[in-house]
Design goal:
heterodimer; A: about 120 residues; mainly beta; Immunoglobulin-like; seven-stranded mixed beta sheet; about 45% strand; globular; B: about 110 residues; five-stranded mixed beta sheet; about 50% strand
């Protein structure tokens, strides 16, 4: 089983608040990702990182920001939450893989965010 | 990125074998084929990965023909707990993944 943790699992917050979603992994993986997924819809990549001090924007534009100061930690921040940010946010990590195992991503349980 | 096409949904009954086929006509030489499973309100979970021919693990089998333009995920004797969305991905090693819409498998008693 993969060791990747997201907190909080659920968050209900008012408009305009600053929030940080935490994601940590203990596998020593270089690459980490943030996805956004609405109920019954596709996963959309919003941010990823190749390693410490590396951050890239994903396919879906997002008002959130990320940082990667330590290998194991990849927090996502919303400076001013809005109702349009209501969604599930999933964090994942991967390593290049060995042999036939290529780029397998391990996901956290997710944070379900509701902005009122 | 190689694009994949898979059925939107499938229905089955407990105890049956389920085969989900994925088309990836423009797969590249270095691409691998990977399947993930996702339950509601959870992150996707890796099921199986292959490059060619057949791969089997304790959960599923993956069949890939010689031209690699399609692949079939085979779930033996499904149970109610196999109800989930199944994603087929075709990517090079160590690149970002595009999950697509997946196949919603509904297993009934």
């Amino acid at each position: 089983e993969a060791d990747i943790y997201q907190t909080p699992r659920y968050l209900v917050i008012g408009t305009g608040k600053k929030i940080t979603l935490e994601c940590s992994q203990t596998m020593g993986h270089d690459k980490m990702y943030w996805y956004q997924q609405d109920p019954g819809m596709e996963l959309h990549l919003i941010h990823y990182s190749y390693g410490v001090n590396s951050t890239e924007k994903g396919d879906l534009s997002s008002e959130s920001t990320v940082s990667r100061i330590r290998t194991e930690h990849f927090p996502l921040t919303l400076e001013s939450a809005r109702p349009s940010h209501t969604s599930q946010y999933l964090c994942a990590s991967s390593s290049p893989g060995q042999g036939m195992s290529k780029n397998i991503q391990y996901f956290g349980a997710g944070t379900r965010l509701s902005v009122l | 990125l190689a694009k994949t096409t898979q059925p939107i949904s499938m229905d089955s009954y407990e105890g049956q074998e389920v085969n989900i086929t994925c088309s990836h006509n423009n797969i590249a030489t270095n691409d691998y084929i990977t399947w993930y499973q996702q339950f509601p309100s959870q992150g996707p979970r890796f099921i199986i990965q292959g490059y060619k021919t057949k791969v089997t693990n304790e959960v599923a089998s993956l069949f890939i023909p010689a031209d690699r333009k399609s692949s079939t995920l085979s779930l033996p004797r499904v149970s109610l707990s196999d109800t989930a969305v199944y994603y087929c991905l075709v990517e090079k090693g160590y690149s970002t993944l595009t999950f697509g819409k997946g196949t919603m498998l509904l297993v009934s008693p």
